Q: What sequence folds into this?
């Protein structure tokens, strides 16, 4: 039961709904009913947040997508001789973007969770756009050219396209926490001075 | 009918708030709906509909006092505004006009 309240708190389910569910729990409703209602409330709260902040999420997702698309275009049309500097640059741009998104989200709302959410959603939406872009690039250009096809496979191929975004999600969440902490601290400092 | 027409579920929630009366907060509203539609209603959906209705100015809400049986959380009470009442009446009139004289519905329970 405690896990239900903790989850609802974390996901920002409004006090009135959480209170109604506590009341029903006290009246002896089944644990199954409670979990169903709690998960639905969490889902609806998340959907409302996305709906309300869709523009901000999309803007940050475009930054993520832009960086990935530029990298994809360079790899296809002007592949570097040495992939080291290119990889380092992409990694630092990604780290900077997720830290900045986390910082911005927390600074705007004063809540660390908002920063984490913004970084995670920017990653999910941005990488989804990137997958679409990579598929389009693959079927229109890469697969028709053996050299480009070899370059594509050498730089990770579809494994990197589909799996890497999933593997990176925990890292993005950590960066969101760091950025969010910075955003919250900056907001508090600016409000108290 | 107004430009921001009521959705089916929104209309049902609005009617449930009217039926519950003074003590209209999430639990009795959801119970009233469950009683009439005879299926489980999600509290989250009820509150989402109430939020939309409040944004349209059709219901107003106020917070009650936090109580121990709710783990120190306050109740949010809802009332239908004058605009909400007008909207319900207008929707009812429109639906009745559309209903009337339909041969497909004759002999049914509608």
A:
């Amino acid at each position: 039961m405690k896990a239900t309240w903790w989850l609802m708190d974390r996901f920002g389910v409004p006090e009135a709904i959480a209170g109604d569910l506590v009341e029903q729990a006290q009246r002896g409703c089944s644990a199954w009913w409670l979990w169903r209602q709690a998960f639905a409330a969490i889902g609806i709260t998340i959907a409302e947040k996305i709906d309300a902040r869709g523009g901000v999420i999309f803007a940050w997702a475009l930054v993520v997508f832009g960086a990935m698309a530029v990298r994809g275009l360079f790899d296809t049309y002007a592949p570097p001789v040495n992939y080291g500097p290119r990889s380092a640059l992409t990694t630092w741009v990604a780290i900077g973007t997720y830290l900045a998104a986390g910082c911005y989200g927390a600074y705007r709302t004063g809540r660390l969770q908002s920063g984490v959410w913004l970084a995670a959603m920017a990653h999910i939406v941005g990488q989804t756009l990137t997958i679409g872009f990579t598929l389009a690039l693959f079927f229109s250009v890469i697969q028709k050219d053996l050299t480009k096809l070899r370059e594509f496979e050498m730089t990770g191929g579809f494994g990197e396209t589909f799996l890497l975004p999933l593997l990176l999600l925990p890292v993005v969440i950590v960066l969101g926490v760091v950025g969010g902490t910075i955003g919250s601290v900056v907001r508090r400092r600016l409000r108290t001075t | 009918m107004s430009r921001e027409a009521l959705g089916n579920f929104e209309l049902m929630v609005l009617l449930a708030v009217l039926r519950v009366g003074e003590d209209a907060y999430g639990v009795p509203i959801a119970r009233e709906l469950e009683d009439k539609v005879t299926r489980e209603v999600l509290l989250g959906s009820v509150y989402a509909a109430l939020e939309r209705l409040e944004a349209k100015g059709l219901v107003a809400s106020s917070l009650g006092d936090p109580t121990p049986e709710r783990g120190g959380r306050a109740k949010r009470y809802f009332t239908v505004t004058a605009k909400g009442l007008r909207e319900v009446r207008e929707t009812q009139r429109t639906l009745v006009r559309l209903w009337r004289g339909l041969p497909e519905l004759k002999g049914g329970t509608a």
